Task: inverse folding
């Protein structure tokens, strides 16, 4: 037979090899060595010395070019060819294998070929076998040769845990595709495991295969055959080192496969364009994934293999700087550049806690707050990585990498377990440039059970809306008004001077209104028209305060539950900032009340001088004329009448605590007295909560006695005085001396008021008697009741300004009431509003100091005539004074 040349692809057993054409690896033929046989490798268990026999031949031949001659064929079955091999160094097979004892002669060897050449070969082999037997070589050893070889792993995960970090010497038995191998793991000289191994970090195209469900053949993916051949040529039946890393979802071993000389084969596959990186193994590979990404990039740049039609991703945009103006969610930010333009960006490759996932939803607020504290108002750097196309329910989104002080914000969120990493498709172009680092950070967070990955969800932060009703606001006002510069967060900007703020330490949500100023109203919707500079004031407030940490001083609350006070941003009064920009004007009453009048007027004047905003057409002469008019009025008032007949100018902050059935008022003057009362009431409450102080009155009360009485409406204890006593029913009518209201209570709700710190001599009763100036109340009970109801509603839980026009000898005050937020002149007083509504009339006989203010009297008479003409209130049936 002719002498042929081929390359040894693999060794099936100690006596059979697979050869392929030197120039065309796809042309293969199987050759068995003539006249000999070797022990068999079987799935159910190898015969003794089967592995050693095969391994002798494998080490000798695989990858080598050999010459072979076919001596005979057996036509049955596989039509196998039998012959001899020779290596370039003149080594002959099967001679060498028989001499080493790894092959033995067939029993029917002499019948296979009866030629003289065959007879000579057979005689030579017999002599070599006899010598091997005599020397107990190979198969002829008296012991050994048993290897425990398994082809299935009962617990792949345990196997990985036991062998992670080890270099396991192995043999590649079969290459299924470019990234899937059947590998024999040589755990010890007597223990082998054959299993499938996935190459870590890559995915190669599949080869041609048969679908087991329908038996149909599925063609190979593009470059699938080339990838398989690339690995076969380099690794098939070669010794390799396996580093097991993990287990795939299907229970297959994931590992690095290293050539003994050239190392990990995965980068070489990638550089040749015969595989792609897979994100699923990033957490297993760690920093090694970066090398694979670079190898893939090299193939893309050269347009090799799978990347022949690759279009290079647009280079990331230039790094920009901006200020974080708003945190919409844990993965969506609004950035404002130096020109003031705002843009929305999404953090690349990270996702906020899913609101639809019950386990993740509780972390949504935590993640957003984490970003708010870290970024709001801060300068950051950002690079646009790509754009995500618009989909149903979502606009087009810009995906960006944002860094603050050199730290990637997306990675910071993931590290703290406050965001998860998006699993991208292979063709996604908007992934983060540090995607692998994000995956590693997520794995670390999971292992450390941080944030989303913790077993226990955070307690939900529930804020109580105290501006929901006036009653709620009043309750919280008592607490907040005693504190200075309370830490808060601006949750929403409603207008230039109105905000929704959160007070975390009180779990309180408030509507907060700036005191001392009035900002123009902005449009509430697209169809609404705002006041001039209203939108500018709103935008300015948004830029300076939205989502910022601030401090608030609460002074009062308005009639709809809004809290009035001072808001500090970076320790600066924000009302002052608005005024300096000309985006608000000073409200004199509330400015004086807040104690910031000097500062606010100075800020307003600064804007006027600079002709800013509201004052763009400011004329200083208008202020001078107003000053001259005021000075003249004051001069006339001083020289016109004596003090006894002159209306006083004595403005005081007051609270109406009670309106009795005759229409007379009880008021508290806000100031040191009410502050002392607050302290006293706190101590008073604590005193009566102590069980040791729960003794009742030792004797029946007497009219005029000071006692502690438990008010029926709220079950709290207050200072009171006995007005009447009903001994038969053991009840007493009491007047609460600090508020002016009265009620009848049983003696069991009375206690002695003998403690020195609570006596009226320590703090005088705070309820003062007062009546409204310039008014005569209706005589008819139904109209009088309308007056009482109106006044009670208008003054409920509101702080007013009272001008004490006159003081009677018995201490009763005659007052004109003003709303500090609305009243600017005398005809905008509460007294004037009562006349206008027909709830009272202007007296025909005025007191001397009332007659002295002719302008105000004329205004009130005009309002009264309008009420009569409109038949409002007491005038509904005409002029009630006609019969007088």
Result:
């Amino acid at each position: 037979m002719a002498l042929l040349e081929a390359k040894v692809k693999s060794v099936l057993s100690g006596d059979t090899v697979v050869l392929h054409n030197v120039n065309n690896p796809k042309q293969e033929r199987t050759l068995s060595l003539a006249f000999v046989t070797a022990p068999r490798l079987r799935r159910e268990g190898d015969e003794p010395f089967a592995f050693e026999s095969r391994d002798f031949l494998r080490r000798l031949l695989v990858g080598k070019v050999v010459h072979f001659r076919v001596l005979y064929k057996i036509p049955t079955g596989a039509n196998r060819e039998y012959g001899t091999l020779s290596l370039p160094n003149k080594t002959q097979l099967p001679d060498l294998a028989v001499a080493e004892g790894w092959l033995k002669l067939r029993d029917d060897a002499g019948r296979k070929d009866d030629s003289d050449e065959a007879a000579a070969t057979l005689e030579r082999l017999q002599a070599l076998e006899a010598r091997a037997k005599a020397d107990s070589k190979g198969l002829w050893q008296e012991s050994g040769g048993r290897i425990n070889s398994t082809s299935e792993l009962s617990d792949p995960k345990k196997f990985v845990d036991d062998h992670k970090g080890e270099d396991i010497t192995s043999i590649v038995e079969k290459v299924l595709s470019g990234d899937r191998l059947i590998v024999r793991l040589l755990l010890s000289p007597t223990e082998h495991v054959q299993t499938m191994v996935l190459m870590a970090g890559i995915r190669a195209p599949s080869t041609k295969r048969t679908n087991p469900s329908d038996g149909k053949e599925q063609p190979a993916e593009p470059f699938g055959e080339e990838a398989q051949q690339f690995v076969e040529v380099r690794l098939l039946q070669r010794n390799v080192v396996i580093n097991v890393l993990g287990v795939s979802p299907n229970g297959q071993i994931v590992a690095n496969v290293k050539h003994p000389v050239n190392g990990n084969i995965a980068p070489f596959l990638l550089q040749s364009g015969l595989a792609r990186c897979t994100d699923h193994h990033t957490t297993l590979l760690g920093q090694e994934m970066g090398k694979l990404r670079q190898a893939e990039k090299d193939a893309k740049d050269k347009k090799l293999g799978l990347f022949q039609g690759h279009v290079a991703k647009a280079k990331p945009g230039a790094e920009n700087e901006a200020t974080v103006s708003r945190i919409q969610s844990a993965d969506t930010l609004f950035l404002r550049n130096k020109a003031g333009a705002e843009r929305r960006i999404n953090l690349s490759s990270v996702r906020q806690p899913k609101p639809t996932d019950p386990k993740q939803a509780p972390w949504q607020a935590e993640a957003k707050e984490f970003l708010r504290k870290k970024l709001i108002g801060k300068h950051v750097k950002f690079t646009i990585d790509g754009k995500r196309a618009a989909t149903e329910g979502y606009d087009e989104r810009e995906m960006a990498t944002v860094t603050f002080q050199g730290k990637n914000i997306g990675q910071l969120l993931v590290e703290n377990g406050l965001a998860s990493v998006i699993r991208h498709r292979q063709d996604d172009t908007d992934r983060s440039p540090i995607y692998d680092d994000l995956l590693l950070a997520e794995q670390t967070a999971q292992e450390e059970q941080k944030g989303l990955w913790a077993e226990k969800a955070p307690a939900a932060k529930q804020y109580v809306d105290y501006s929901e009703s006036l009653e709620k606001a009043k309750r919280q006002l008592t607490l907040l008004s005693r504190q200075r510069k309370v830490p808060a967060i601006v949750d929403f900007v409603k207008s230039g001077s109105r905000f929704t703020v959160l007070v975390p330490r009180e779990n309180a949500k408030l509507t907060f209104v700036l005191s001392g100023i009035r900002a123009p109203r902005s449009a509430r919707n697209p169809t609404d028209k705002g006041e001039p500079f209203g939108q500018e004031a709103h935008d300015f407030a948004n830029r300076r305060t939205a989502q910022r940490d601030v401090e608030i001083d609460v002074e009062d609350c308005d009639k709809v539950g809004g809290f009035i006070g001072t808001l500090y941003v970076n320790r600066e009064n924000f009302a002052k900032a608005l005024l300096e920009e000309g985006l608000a004007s000073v409200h004199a009453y509330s400015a004086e009340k807040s104690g910031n009048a000097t500062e606010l007027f100075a800020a307003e004047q600064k804007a006027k001088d600079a002709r800013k905003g509201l004052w763009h057409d400011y004329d200083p002469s208008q202020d001078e004329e107003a000053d001259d008019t005021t000075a003249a009025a004051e001069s006339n008032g001083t020289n016109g009448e004596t003090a006894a007949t002159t209306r006083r100018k004595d403005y005081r902050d007051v609270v109406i605590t009670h309106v009795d059935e005759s229409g007379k008022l009880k008021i508290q003057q806000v100031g040191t007295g009410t502050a002392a009362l607050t302290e006293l009431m706190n101590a008073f409450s604590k005193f009566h909560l102590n069980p040791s102080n729960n003794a009742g009155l030792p004797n029946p009360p007497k009219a005029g006695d000071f006692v502690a009485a438990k008010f029926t409406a709220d079950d709290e204890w207050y200072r009171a005085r006995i007005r009447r006593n009903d001994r038969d029913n053991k009840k007493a009518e009491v007047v609460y001396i600090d508020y002016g209201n009265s009620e009848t209570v049983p003696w069991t709700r009375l206690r002695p008021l003998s403690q020195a710190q609570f006596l009226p001599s320590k703090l005088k009763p705070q309820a003062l008697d007062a009546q409204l100036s310039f008014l005569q109340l209706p005589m008819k009970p139904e109209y009088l009741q309308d007056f009482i109801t109106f006044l009670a509603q208008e003054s409920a839980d509101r702080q007013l300004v009272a001008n004490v026009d006159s003081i009677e000898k018995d201490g009763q005050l005659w007052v004109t009431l003003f709303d500090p937020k609305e009243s600017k002149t005398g005809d905008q007083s509460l007294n004037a509003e009562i006349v206008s509504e027909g709830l009272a009339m202007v007296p025909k006989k005025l007191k001397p100091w009332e007659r002295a203010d002719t302008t105000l009297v004329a205004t009130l008479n005009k309002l009264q005539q309008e009420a009569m003409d409109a038949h409002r209130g007491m005038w509904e049936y005409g002029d009630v004074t006609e019969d007088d």
